[in-house]
């Protein structure tokens, strides 16, 4: 029985910083980032670039694509880093309102 290779996505970890300091958020320039929101529901997402987001409100459980395995949970006040290449389902129980920024994989800072 042939299956999809999961080795590339199984090591993609979501990083959640619970309640980061206001000074750190200011340093990142969060308030200048675009905003995005969604209502409660389930969303299939694929991240083609690393996304850093700060949730102003909401509650999310993240499941690995085509799996019942919860890989992360986060909500209002959390700073979240979602890795490039991640395919997942967001189960949003409380409507999300967030600031977000995508990192370009083609640019380097040196």
UniProtKB/TrEMBL annotation:
InterPro entries: RmlC-like_jellyroll, RmlC_Cupin_sf, UGlyAH_Cupin_dom
Domain of life: Eukaryota
Domain (S)-ureidoglycine aminohydrolase cupin: 25-100
CDD domains: cupin_TM1112-like
Pfam families on file: Cupin_3
PANTHER family per UniProt: OS04G0445200 PROTEIN, RMLC-LIKE CUPINS SUPERFAMILY PROTEIN
Protein name as it appears in the record: (S)-ureidoglycine aminohydrolase cupin domain-containing protein
Organism field: Centaurea solstitialis
């Amino acid at each position: 029985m042939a299956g999809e290779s999961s080795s590339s996505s199984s090591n993609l970890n979501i990083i959640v910083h619970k309640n980061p300091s206001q000074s750190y958020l200011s340093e990142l320039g969060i308030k200048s980032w675009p905003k995005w929101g969604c209502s409660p529901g389930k969303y299939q997402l694929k991240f083609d670039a690393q996304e850093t987001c700060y949730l102003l409100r909401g509650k999310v459980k993240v499941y690995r694509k085509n799996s019942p395995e919860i890989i992360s949970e986060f909500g209002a006040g959390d700073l979240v880093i979602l890795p490039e290449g991640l395919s997942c389902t967001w189960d949003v129980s409380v409507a999300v309102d967030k600031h977000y920024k995508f990192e370009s994989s083609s640019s380097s800072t040196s």
